[in-house]
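--- STAGE predict ---
source: upstream dedup step, 1 unique chain passed
mode: sequence only
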Amino acid sequence: MRFSRNSLWMVVCGLLMSLLATLAWADRDSGDDQDEHGRSPYAIGLWGDLPYSDVQALIGVPNLIADMNRQELAFTVHDGDLKAGNGTPGSVTPTTCSDALYEQGLRFFNSLRAPAMITPGDNDWTDCDRPSNGGFSSRERLDHERKVFFNTPFSLGQRRLRQEVQATPLCLGANGPTPCVENRRWTLGGVTYVTLNVQGSCNNLCDTAPDAPEWSARNQANIAWLRESFRFASARQSAAVMIIAQADPGWDASDGTRAPLRDAKTLAETDGQPDGFQEYLLALREEVIAFRKPVAYVHGDSHYFRVDKPLQDAQGRRVENFTRVETFGDNQANGTNDVNWLKVHVDVRSREVFAYQPQIVPANRVAVPAP
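--- STAGE serialize ---
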């Protein structure tokens, strides 16, 4: 087939425009909006505390990812824990803190069509010093996780989204001070999203080898990023803020089986365990109240799906604009039973901005098979 000069020029122009459009999406700025007014509704996917077993890694999570990929999502976030708290002898998938664990996680995230984010979990690094997890240095494993998942300012996933990355204050790694590159921020459709490295296991103040210097540096960095992000959201006139972290820090004295017990007014822990969260929670409460608009706080850790309002002010009054969102977590004894995710509809024109819709993956149903 022969092309005329004009036809060839039209083909070249078409290819060039397609390439530019692709690059624009891959390198989209964190401030880009969905339409000219930044008010177009969209949906996101939240999940975490997975996989915890061979059956979850080989069947449950692939089913979950396929379910996410069948829906139109602006992005997804995994709120930490790529494995169970202890390794499983004889497993065929990675269950200790070997390099293969993070490589498996990277494959999962990059199989998602939408931009994919993650925030670290305690089973990914603070608990890696347990003998059952391989007896690694926790700081070194976090350094490795930073290299695998956070080595660019972009998300993971088949489509990428550019994020702002915290530069200072510094955290601590195996070789001393290092940037907390896992702490990130992006804005989409008039909402500001923030990830913070806040961990279970007392936020690294208890368990096998507590590390107070590491906690202190990271805690101050987290508080600084939290406060800066609320200033950012206010300056941009964001309609809402969503914060994603791993730990369930405990909010009151209601449920000691799933979270630390604390005085809801002072936010001080009351169960005698090391408190790695009070200063952080006080800063969070102060910023939430000052912001006045909806704030969603997403975490995993205690493996109990719920959407509620546990935060109280210093007088014991419910903080009305704060919503805690805990994603589905492992039910390892029952295979794929809790390998599900949460769809969040985001509409800044609505009063509460966020609307929550649990997604029970049909192929992962155990107690009641899908019809």
